[in-house]
Amino acid sequence: MNPLSLPAEIFIFVLAAFLGFELISKVPSTLHTPLMSGTNAIHGIILVGALTVAATVTHSVAVGILAAIALVLGAMNVVGGFVVTDRMLGMFKARRPAAHGKE
Amino acid sequence: MSISPTVLLYTYCITAACFILGVRYLGSPATARRGNMLAAGGMALALVISTIALSSTLPWAIVIPAVLLGAIIGAVSAKLVRMTAMPQMVALFNGMGAGTAALIGVIHILTTAEGHPLNTGDMLSTCLGTGIGSLSFTGSIIAYAKLQELIKGRPITFPLQKPFNGVLLLIIIVLGILAGTSAHAPDHVLFIALAGVSLILGIMFVLPIGGADMPVVIALLNSFTGLATALTGFVLNNAIMIVAGTLVGASGLILTQLMSKAMNRSIANILFGAFGAVQTGAGSELTGDLTVRRTTVEDLAILCTYAQSVVIVPGYGLAVARAQHEIKEVSDLLEERHVNVRYAIHPVAGRMPGHMNVLLAEANVPYTQLAEMDSINPDFPQTDVVIVIGANDVVNPAARTNPGSPIYGMPILNVDQAKTVVVLKRSMNPGFAGIDNELFYRPNTMMLFGDAKATLTELVAAIKNVQ
Question: pTM for this one?
Fold first, then answer.
C-alpha cells in the first residue's frame, strides 16, 4: 500500500532523525514531562501498524488474538497518551499574572 | 472506498507536518497545549485514512471492539489518574505502544510461512523492532510498578548483574543472527525466543535503577519505543510510522539527556550506577548525638509572621497531601503582613521536572513568586525562615558535604544556610532515594510532623491569631 522504495525510506529515516535531534534543543525543565508524554502519544502511530497487520490476518485464531491485543494496546497508547498530556498542560492555563496578593 | 497509495502518502505527509510542529510547540509553555492538539489532529487524520485504505480487508469484528476497548481504557485511566501519578501513567502508555510494536513483529513472522525467507533488511528490522519493543514493554511495566510502589523503588541488585545483562544482550544478538540466517527462515522458534529474552532483559535493565531516576528511564524507554515504531514502519513499508517513530526516538534521546543534566548526572551513571543502592563511606551512617528538635504550629506561625523573608520549599509530599491551596493561603496571609515570601523550586522536586510549577500554578501562585534553584541559593544565608514541605533529597546537605553519599554532587537547595529551617514531614522516614538526611538533626532545624494539608490548615488559623 506504499510506493516508497527502501532507499527512499532510509532517506526519510535519516532526515527525521536529524530533525528530532534539532527540534527540542532548548526546553525549560518545566516542560520536560509534558514533552515526554506528548512524544509518547505520537509513537502511538504504531496503531496504524496494528491495523495493517490485522488486515492480513485470515487463517489463524492465535494470530487473530495477538492482533486484537496489539490493537487494544495501540489504542491505549494513542488515546491515553494525548489525554494525559492535555491534562498536564491544562494545569499551566491556571497561571495568572501576579496582580493580586501584593499591595 | 479505496484510496490510492499516492493519496495515502500525501495524507501521511500532512500528519508528519502536524507531528513536527506539535513537538516544536510542546517545547514552549505558551504553545504547548496547541502542540499537543495539533499532534492529536495529525494522528486522527493518519488513523482515519489508514482505516479507509485498509477497509476492504480489515476484520471489523476484531478491530472495532479492540480499538474501542483500548481507547476507553486509555481515556478513562488518563482522566482519572491523579496529578502525582502521571509519570507512571506515561510509563504505562509507553509500555502499551512498545508491546504493540513487539506483537506486530511476532505476527509478521508468524504469518510468513516457514521456508519463504524474508529479505535481509526486512528480517533485520523485524528482529530489532521486536527486540527493542519487548525490552521497552517490560522495562516500562517495571518503571510503572516502581513509581506506583507495587515493587520497592530502591535499586534491586544482585552479584554479577551487569555481566548477566550483558550475556542476555549477547543471547539476543545471537538469536537474531540465527533467526535471520536459519535454513528454514523465518524460524518461528528462534524468533519467539528472541522476543522472550528481550522481555527478560527489559525487566533486568530497569530493576537496578532507583525510583528517583525513573523519569529519566521513562524518557529513554519512550525513545526506544519510538525507534521500535520506526523499525516496524520499515517492516510494513509505512512512511508515517518511520517518520513519527524516528522523530520520537531522536527527540526522546535529547530529552533523556536534558533530564539527566537537570540532575547533574550522566545517563550512564543513572542507568548503570544503581543509585542509592549502597550507602558506604564515612558520614552517611549518621552516628553520634542525633537529636531532633520538634516545634508546634503556633510557634511556626509566630516565627513566620515576625520574619522578614520566608522561603517555601515544596516537594513530593506537598503533591501527595494536595496541600497547594493551603500553602498559597499561608503565603497570602504572610504577604499581607509584609513578609517577603518566595517559593524555591528545585529542578527535580517532585517526581517529574516541572511537577511543582504545575501544582502551584493550579493554586494560582503568581509565577513571579517562584524562584529557580540557581537564583535563590545565594539568598538563603539572609533568609529568616525556610519552610520545607515534603521535600527531602533536594535539601540534603550530604549532596554538598559527604563524598560517600549516593547523592553527592547533585545540586541542592542550600536551605541549611538559612537562620531557621522548619521541615513539615509525615515521619522520619528517608526520602525517595532512600537515604538519611542530616538536615533534620542540624541545630537550626525544627521538625513539624503530620500530614502537610492538616498542618498547613492549622497554620493558617494560627497565623490569623497572631497579633
Answer: 0.77
